[in-house]
Amino acid sequence: MEIPTWKKKNLIGVQSLSQSEIRKILKLAKFFKKSLGTKHNHLKGKRIVNLFMEPSTRTRIAFEVAAKSLQADVISIAEKSSSLTKGETLRDTALNIQALGADAIVLRHSSPGASLFLSRIVDVPIINAGDGAHEHPSQALLDLFTLEESIGSLEGKKVTILGDILFSRVARSNFWGLSKMGAEITFAGPSTLVPKSFESMGAKVSHDLKDSLSEADAVMLLRIQHERQSSSHFPSLAEYTRIFGLNKSRAKWLKKDAVILHPGPINRGIEIDSELADSDNSVILNQVTNGVAVRMAILSLCTLSRIE
Length: 308
Ligand code: CP
What we know:
Elements: H1 19-34, E1 47-52, H2 58-69, E2 73-78, H3 90-99, E3 104-109, H4 114-119, E4 126-131, H5 137-151, E5 158-162, H6 169-180, E6 184-188, E7 204-206, H7 209-214, E8 218-221, H8 237-244, H9 248-251, E9 259-261, H10 274-277, H11 284-303
Parallel strand pairs: 1-2, 1-3, 3-4, 5-6, 5-8, 6-7, 8-9
Helix pairs in contact: 1-5, 1-11, 2-11, 5-6, 5-11
Bound molecules: phosphoric acid mono(formamide)ester.
């Protein structure tokens, strides 16, 4: 398959993508999914650098597998093994990576805006692999792909995102993606993590678990992002689980065919019980597999883009 024309060099967030751009990414990902495991030559001779300044299992490995499946050379750098520990700035690090011949940089960073910042400094494409609580576009795109695969068109579908919305880049990117695809989004959880102010984005806000689960075609669980919280937003984890954890008895409120998603890492027994994470309704591992195909689409479109 020919890589379609694509005019955006960088992928900073889903907020700036149009519905037709999202469809283009998902269509290309569908092509790559059909031949997952086969090597394509779209990025042969290109060099992709994964610069991960926060821990990652799924995103880093999926970008690596995706790049290798397109026959690119891949170099992965973690903060602790780089000269950032010796005082080098992110700006200088990126300029040096570019000088070493990178054709694209995949960046994960704890600061919101880090990817946008680098995209204004270097000439090579910057792909945001998560920047603080701002956006995680490749995650949302793989979530859209998985949802369409499991429940069909998202037009008019109801998706509940339950958990730590306040500190979640996944929730924000999914909100933009889902709303552009015509879905209705409910943010659910305790009022300290799901403030009413989110309604101004166009989402429904609910602190009533039964209400928000019973109408959902899909429910996405989010873990508590302790690493971004400087103070506690609820009395204890046990208290959170007691009131908002998805367990077998609460899952009875869900529609029979509702699908369960989680971006990972899962904290089993806290936001979701094992029997639900591993149930027939769960598409959690499908999300992970689809992440390779979606990232193959992102890498080929951005690296081979014609104009910014
Ligand atoms: N979903 C996600 O971003 O997982 P990792 O932190 O393991 O990459």
